[in-house]
Amino acid sequence: MSARELTLPPDARPASNFRPTAETLALLREKARFVRLETIRLIEVAKVGHYSSVFSAAEIFAALYYDVMDITHGEPRRPDRDRFLMGKGHAAVGLFPILAEFGYIDRETLDNYTRLGNPLGDHPDMRKVPGIDFSSGSIGHALSAGLGMALGGRMQSRAFDVFVMLGDGEMQEGQVWEAAISAAHHKASNLVAIIDRNGFQLDGAVDDVMGIEPLDEKWRAFGWEVHTVDGHDLDALTTLLRQVKADEAREKPCCIIARTLKGKGVSYMETEPGWHLGYLDPSDAARAVEEILNRTI
Amino acid sequence: MNRPLSPNSWQYRELNAKTPGLSHLSDALISLVEAGEPVVAGSADLQYSNGLNTFAARYPERYIQFGISEQNMVTAAAGLATTGLKPYVATFASFLGLLCCEQIRMDVAYCAQPVRLIGHHTGISLGFYGTSHHATEDIATMRAIADLTVVSPADGPQLAAAIKASADYPEPIYFRIGRGREPDVYALDTPFTFGKAIEHLAGDEITIFACGMTVHPALEAARALNAQGHSVGVIDMPTIKPLDRAAILAAAARSQVLMSVEEHNVLGGLGSAIAEVLTDEGAGVRLVRHGIHDEYSLIAPPTHLYAHYRLDAAGIAEVAREAMGLRKAA
């Protein structure tokens, strides 16, 4: 990623009253670490999984579930809860441990991830897993589903917000742009897209496979309010998400481009995009765990 | 300069006035709203073709215009349904049943969202608009999707009755409908039951199974043949999935030969679904499958195409006569 891309525009500089306290930040750091460690533990059960796709999004998961979103422990279907959808459904292994912490799925179910008949597979399934707001796995659908939820909420005068995490490779799907143009037209201001801009997809660097830049200009041109943020800077990320959620005056849908690092937290994954999908022998997993425990992100 | 246009001239927005049959969809949805149902409707730049402009004018706050983005519309409808609304979304069957096949599978049926998909102008009813606008594969694609009900109403009144009956139906539904110009088979407010065949005529020599726009000409053909001394039955199969197996087996026991007729490819459609039941049960009776025989339709006005493909009354009678020639030995 170039230095230019990492330089944040002024709109990413947080308004101070939305900043999390040091205590909150410490909690969110711990939760992001928890997501990474649980991902390694669960992929050991499945013997294959998307480590680095979760690692780039770990801070986003932590900020949304443990700070920003209006959700309730033990009540995954409360009608006025905020919704979360994953266009990059292959990172669900990082979300399942959070859902277990919220009491939506039990511990034994979590521990039997991907085993015969278990509701938890590589991709999230709303029919089987309480707390999954929409099934995914076929890249490109989630923003449309989130748009439907946002419009449904507005039609019924309900105050919830809809957060849709999208992969950057997902930008290559045409349906994303159908949803983008439609959300802006319908002024779906309760819809927030978060793009995990980790720069890689299965076949290599996004810019090599099928370039998507200038991403911020594209979303702005489609009629969205756009923010760019360092997706691992929990202070900036949480502040921005709080600010976006609190903004009642916004008439547009909001797109957050989270600049992230594929595999963030495990050094050898950060330099090898092949870890999009793979398996760590327990000896290597132990090294990864050690790094995650000892590094501060 | 300001000479008034001839009464023979018409433009797209006058389509409703010109085609009264288009009113059934909107009227049925309006009656559901009036009954307190949380109905919302969506269309993809075809609101005058499916008549939803009437619903949109009446309940603008319950109507979503999606523009020419059918896939986005189908997935968004599933999202709407998760919030407790009952979305009815409509576009040409060629786009809904084929272009949006994966969205219907993944987001509607797999997610078990009670979305009602209305594929209109199905079969070859768009005539000289050509293959891009024809849908002779949508029964095949839709009935292969688990947890999706497939309904092919014969006319406007049956569509209206099925729409009204759908309010509390638990599964998502794909409605395959015509262009609003089918002659009526049913009286308004004839009750509709999902999964039930409707026997119009019982026949010892042959039973013709029909759905959608082929029901009316099949009845005409049967009456003509019966007037000549034949014993021809006709069963309307408005629900293609789940199929009324008992009705098929009863006809198989009674008639010497069976025939299916549909505005669809003979591969994968109603005839195939009936054949599956007959072989499952070892019914041992011949089924002649009539429809579009695995080809792309010629260009012509619809009525010319129906005559060419023997899907009008005269054509169906001719195929039925041929089928009766194949009847099992007494």
Could you characterize the architecture of this molecule?
The complex is a heterodimer of chains A (297) and B (330). Chain A contains 13 helices and seven strands. Chain A has 297 residues and is of the alpha/beta class. In chain A, strands 1-2-3-7-6 form a five-stranded parallel sheet, with helices on both faces. Chain A starts with a helix and ends with a helix. Helices cover 37% and strands 18% of the residues of chain B. In chain B, strands 2-1-3-4-6-5-10 form a seven-stranded mixed sheet, with helices on both faces. Classes of the chains: A alpha/beta (297), B alpha/beta (330).
List the chains of the largest interface with their residue counts.
A-B, 30 and 30 residues
SS-based class of chain A: alpha/beta
- Give the averaged pLDDT of chain B, no decimals: 96
Order of helices and strands of chain A: HHHHEHHHEHEEEHHEHEHH
Distance between the termini of chain A: 18 Å
Write a concise synopsis of the structure shown.
With 297 residues, chain A is of the alpha/beta class. Helix content of chain A is 43%, strand content 11%.
